[in-house]
Structures are given as structure tokens and as C-alpha cells.
Amino acid sequence: MRLSEHERRSIEAASRAVFPSGTRVLLFGSRTDDSRRGGDIDLLVALPKSMSPEDWQTHRARFVVDLYRRMEEQKIDVIMDAPDLESPSPVIGFAYRDGIELTHV
């Protein structure tokens, strides 16, 4: 996994500050492969329960802003999933299959 200790701690702290208990955050994509270089930080936030679309967007925005504040600007992509999500994206399935859990709030 190609994240520094500071990046891992920052993701965990931002997750705890923004999301409800039971939320999982997984790293997926190129940063999970130690043999590769570069790449953005791809995160899947797996919420434990449903939220309104407004709360969904508010929580996601707060998380991204908090990450930028803690890690300075980097290319970070955040996708979110919840139990009641109909027709989840194939990317979400890939993230669950190949992702590495960074934190469980």
C-alpha cells in the first residue's frame, strides 16, 4: 500500500470527525499496488446506514475538505456506498473486492 503514515492517520482522523460510527473507509485502485508509482488516492466510504441525499453530499464534502486540510492538496477521489443504495456502480464492487480497509469508525 502506497500511503505514508501521515496520510493513513489523516484519513482515519477525517473519517472519525465526519462519519457516523460503523463507517468503513477502504483504499482501492493504483495506491494498493506497491509496484506502481504515482496515482491519486481512491477511497470508498461504506456508510453503515442510509442518509438523505443532502446529508450524503454534506458528509462527503466535509470529509474531502478535512482531508485537504490535513494532507494538503492531493488528487483524492471519494466514492460512497450505503446499504440501501440501488444499483451500485461496478467501481464499488471492485473497491470492496480489491480494496484495503484503512479504518472502521
Sequence-ordered SSE layout with sheet pairings:
Elements: H1 5-18, E1 24-28, E2 41-46, H2 53-71, E3 76-81, H3 90-98, E4 100-104
Parallel strand pairs: 2-3
Antiparallel strand pairs: 1-2, 1-4
Helix pairs in contact: 1-2
Radius of gyration: 13 Å
- The percentage helix is 40-55%
Quaternary structure state of the chains depicted: single chain
Beta-strand residue percentage: 15-25%
Instruction: Give the biggest beta sheet.
Output: 4 strands, mixed
N-end to C-end Cα span: 20 Å
Task: State the shape.
Answer: globular
Structural class: alpha+beta
Number of strands: 4
What does this entry show, briefly?
By secondary structure, the protein is α+β, with helices and mostly antiparallel strands. It has helices at residues 5-18, 53-71, 90-98, and strands at 24-28, 41-46, 76-81, 100-104.
Characterise this structure.
α1 (5-18) runs antiparallel to α2. The protein has helices at 5-18, 53-71, 90-98, and strands at residues 24-28, 41-46, 76-81, 100-104. It is globular and about 35 Å long. It contains 3 helices and 4 strands; from the N terminus they run αββαβαβ. The two termini are 20 Å apart. Strands 3-2-1-4 form a 4-stranded mixed beta sheet, with helices on both faces. The protein has 105 residues and is α+β, with helices and mostly antiparallel strands. α2 (53-71) links the parallel β2 (41-46) and β3 (76-81). It is 40% helix and 21% strand.
